[in-house]
Amino acid sequence: MITAHVVNAHNKHLYENEFDEFLRRRHDFFVHQKHWRPPSPDGRELDQFDTDAATYLLGIEDGRVVTSARLIPTSEPHMVSEAFSHMCEKSGVPRRPDWAEWTRTFVVPDKRSTGLRGTLTQLCCAVMEYALDEGLSAVGGVQETYFMPHHGALKWRAEPMGMAREENGEWYIVAYIDVNEAALASVRKILGIEHSLLVRRGRQVPFIESNENLQRLFA
Amino acid sequence: MIDSEVFDFVERCRKHTAAGPLLGDLLETVKNLGFEHLILSGVPLSGQKLAPMVELNGWPAGWFERYVEAEHAAVDGVCIYSAKTLKPFFWADVPAKWADTDDSRRVAGEATEFGIASGFAVPMLSVHHWQSVLSFASAAKSCTLSPRQQVQLVTMAVYAGMSIQALSDDDDGEGLLTDREREVLLWAAAGKTSSETSQILGLTERTVKWHSTRAREAFGVATTTQAVVEAVRRRLIHP
Q1: Whole-model pTM?
Q2: From B61's CA, which of A24, A124, B129, B193 has a CA 20 to 30 Å away?
Q3: What is the DSSP code (8-state) at residue B44?
Q4: Is ipTM over 0.95?
Q5: Which CATH number characterizes residue B40's domain?
Q6: Closest chain B residue to A119 measured between Cα atoms?
């Protein structure tokens, strides 16, 4: 079982090694496996959304970063607002501090499995726990349609912002998952756990408030 | 078909509490795109039986029975290709390697007798099987969809697939095996024979064999190797 470490601009210095490992795993996945991004000479993958507004959940097991999630308030520039707004024809691009965009999720190859109690579900559980802790209403963003049934299996409700689309040979949809107690309870039940998966070290700042602080800082 | 009908379907999808009404609703809705029949099923890999993997059966009366009885899944190009791609596809675009075999053409020929001549398939993740496919069938010789219609169909397929996963039993086999059966499979996975396992566990060989048989029955498979694979896949054992 993973523990999910909450990493943001304020406590990142405590996670230098883990964060570097995370960027290398991202490079393995998003450059070499998915071919979504061009190779980077230093073997680390970073994009324009890796700013101080981002909060990361690093899923660590046996001392390794095996999975991850990046959460960005949709009130900040985010992937959907900058690159996929045309896929929100039904509801428009969400821009709310309590709606987080969830991106950059990978699972290292030896932890992928088709079962429902694996690393991916553990990460989903951590994301839902974090979102609920932070008072968020929804998490989501652009997702591969192929994986959407996983949300169904967790008994999660995902609201589409528009139709599925084919882009560069893959099918995507922009959808946001409702954050609530029931969603956390159902994924915990599937995993057979009642405990928290989150670890918070160092200075912690609320997801919603930290965003407001940043805005003030840069105003 | 207009977009709002698709989103209305998505909304209704989440309210269905059983597979039957969901199937009826989906069939009714995709009629607008020229599809009369559909099936949502786990994709059988070689040797797996199709029937227990089917989640929504909207095939014409008689065709499903015929397909299962004749074991068409093993040779049908559409079915074989469904295990090999993650992307939605027209049946007509299945590569010749699988579609142009004599057997596959025979299956396609038989299907026309049941009013199935063309179709569109949407592969999806399944938590129970290798993967799932939602396949829509039309009586038209070749089915055509505008880019917008394709988008509409895939959107509905994805939400139907999500709903079915939500309705299906979430115990992924827990309780399927007893602790003893799990233990026996674990030692089999480690390469131990029944006789060796019996010594390790302090049981008679007959008892060990009995546990293996029960585990095979639980998964509906023929060999202990298959039972080990299934138990690993469902994360019931961690060799």
Answers
A1: 0.83
A2: B129
A3: P
A4: no
A5: 3.30.450.80
A6: B235
